[in-house]
């Protein structure tokens, strides 16, 4: 999908569709008021008849509005004007994209970026609109025999900004939004890949491809089992012992700050490409979802792609800790005592508590980079979901 910005009045737009907001109760946004004025009150008359209240998520598609050059006008309910915050703005954009796609609009000019969102400027509104649009249209169909295509998918979206002075920041917002959306898509694609394809070697191949695509700033090193053994990463290695797939740790280094004093930010992602639980095997119900136990690594990969695309002036190291936790003749057992890279011994009570065994060795490994900060991302325990639900992420830190 193609995105662009422009600055112009709604009555001069020759487009398949114009998108404007309506607030609750039946209050036209400033842009909608302009269209209502040139159409001799056509839109406000519809609202008075109760066609649209303006509640969040409501839509009304108008065809051939008098004196308006565009073929259609899409009215989007935005809720109460004073309550339009970041979350609601993104929901309105999402509803807009889905409606345009479902109604066969191939192009549209969106004036929602001119709505007032508390504490946010035009750059933020355009960038969020791009990110939300890309997310709304995401689907994972790479492995489907038959791919479904919308009858007339949305191809072009133009975001209007209030003044020509804001065109530059709007264009920058699109560039940044596309980079962030590409990183999110890359992470989602990795997470959705089945475990018979996405193993530690697949993660390593993606890391190498990233270095090839951004060779100016990115290098990738893949550390195999023999090198891990030499490093003393016995805890990490034990988790993958039961699998026929080799455990591989992919280290992606991005250098955007040439200063020798610049310390990197290190991101560590748990990459259990499938977690059966090992000898302490999980219940069969829902076990197919254990392919998602590498979503920490997927998130780190997506961030590294994003950082490289944006060419941020910082140094970042991303580590994808790839392995597979399977039962087998070589699998580690409850009761085993392992020696970690830091020299500590650990007794295993449950082989399904494998994430901490992998991460502890990786966290010891990344100390060599003398990082400014370390962030590890992991689907570490289902207890977090039980405690916090599906919409809140658990965060722990040794820094206030």
UniProtKB/TrEMBL annotation:
One of its GO terms (molecular function) is manganese ion binding. Residues 350-357 form the Cytosol aminopeptidase domain. GO terms for biological process: proteolysis. InterPro entries: Leucine_aapep/pepB, Macro_dom-like, Peptidase_M17_C, Peptidase_M17_N. CDD domains: Peptidase_M17 (cd00433). Keywords: Aminopeptidase, Hydrolase, Manganese, Protease. Its EC number is 3.4.11.1. Belongs to the peptidase M17 family. PANTHER family: CYTOSOL AMINOPEPTIDASE (PTHR11963:SF23), LEUCINE AMINOPEPTIDASE-RELATED (PTHR11963). This is Leucyl aminopeptidase. The lineage of its organism: Bacteria, Pseudomonadati, Pseudomonadota, Gammaproteobacteria, Enterobacterales.
